[in-house]
Amino acid sequence: xxxxxxxxxxxxxxxxxxxxxxxxxxxxxxxxxxxxxxxxxxxxxxxxxxxxxxxxxxxxxxxxxxxxxxxxxxxxxxxxxxxxxxxxxxxxxxxxxxxxxxxxxxxxxxxxxxxxxxxxxxxxxxxxxxxxxxxxxxxxxxxxxxxxxxxxxxx
Length: 155
Prior knowledge:
Oligomer: single chain
Structural class: mainly alpha
């Protein structure tokens, strides 16, 4: 099942690469007319595919030389931004967004824990003050610390 799926995925990628390079810059498509805005937009979108293909063949280029000028350039730049930025940036944005969300959640948890600890200490302090056992409590705490330190030192 997995091998079959892998073959299908590889086949689909090969078809997409062939279709994309069929309209790639440097093909024989623009021998009669110049590439305009829409061709530049498409060439910018497929710039990653055409770059990889251009490493193995001289027929495919990244940029169409026979173009209409500034409109082609504008389309190419917009396509490259959409193709490259649209693929690379959202992952970073999502990661930053998740990080901010996690920070907010941690701040909320910290606030809740702090409030709970404050209430517990206040209740403990009020109860101990009423019984006037501060000295006794101090001795018990000191003894407990000594016992725990001995256990830690012996282990």
